[in-house]
Specification:
This protein is 79% helix and 0% strand. It is mainly α.
Length: 129
Amino acid sequence: MPSPSKPWLPAAIADLLFILVFAAIGRDAHARGDIVLGAFTTAWPFLAGAAIAWMVLRAWRAPLSLWPVGVGVWLSTVVVGMLLRAATGQTVVLPFIVVALISLAVFLLGYRALVALVVRVVRKRRSRV
């Protein structure tokens, strides 16, 4: 069960927002009309993949860890997202898979790496005092 003393809620919200940003950028880049509603249409398979990873990995225990949570959420987001897209007749082509892997790695692993770096720097500075 998620603990209120851990930063799981901001991490879950960050994952959700970054997946929506990924979908919105893609919709905008391909001039697919309504970016807001379209982003949700594009994002739902990826959001489902992230949600599954959160449950399977019990991500709330260490939501900001790169391994295994960050990598698991990233890969599940892409793999489950692509499988759901294929199952629902949405486009799944190799270039899109590559772009999704790279973009979602930057987003979902990037903020976790940045948080880890900030925490490390703060701890190092505190230990010097």
